[in-house]
Amino acid sequence: QVQLVESGGGLVQAGGSLRLSCAASLPTFRNAAMAWFRRAPRKAREFVSAVNWNGGNTVYADSVKGRFTISRDNSEKTVYLQMNSLKPEDTAVYYCAASRVPHASVASTDFNSWGQGTQVTVSS
Questions:
Q1: In terms of DSSP bridges, do strands 68-73 and 78-83 run parallel, antiparallel, or are they unpaired?
Q2: Through-space distance between the first and last CA atoms of the chain, rounded to whole angstroms
Q3: What is the rounded distance in angstroms from the CA atom of residue 91 to the CA atom of residue 24?
Q4: CA–CA separation, 24 vs 6, rounded Å?
Q5: 3 state DSSP class of 3
Q6: How far is the C-alpha of 32 from the C-alpha of 4, rounded, in Å?
Q7: Which of 50, 58, 94, 100 is most buried as measured by Cβ atoms within 10 A of its Cβ?
Q8: Is the pLDDT reported for residue 82 higher than 90?
Q9: Bigger pLDDT: 82 or 28?
Q10: Percent of residues, the chain, with pLDDT higher than 70
């Protein structure tokens, strides 16, 4: 059974930083693209960032480009999201997702395993 467990969320002031982690018990982790999505209160889930199977290609939503960095450690089966210069509008539940394909994708339909989410709250 695939498990994705996120950690690292919390409360931070605007301008601060957080680092999210996602530990995956996914046998095919090395071959799977990984991504972060988020859902803000009263909003639909949205794509944040994705990384391909070997970490060589990354994709970011325009809203986080230049502030967030996605990375992965295949030996540890973990994906990270470094979030800097946080804004109140970044407040959301952040979800880790594993793809059924190796290339980085922005489409949630390409992802077939999801974590339970970790809350990120940015105060102004």
A1: antiparallel
A2: 40
A3: 24
A4: 9
A5: coil
A6: 13
A7: 50
A8: yes
A9: 82
A10: 100
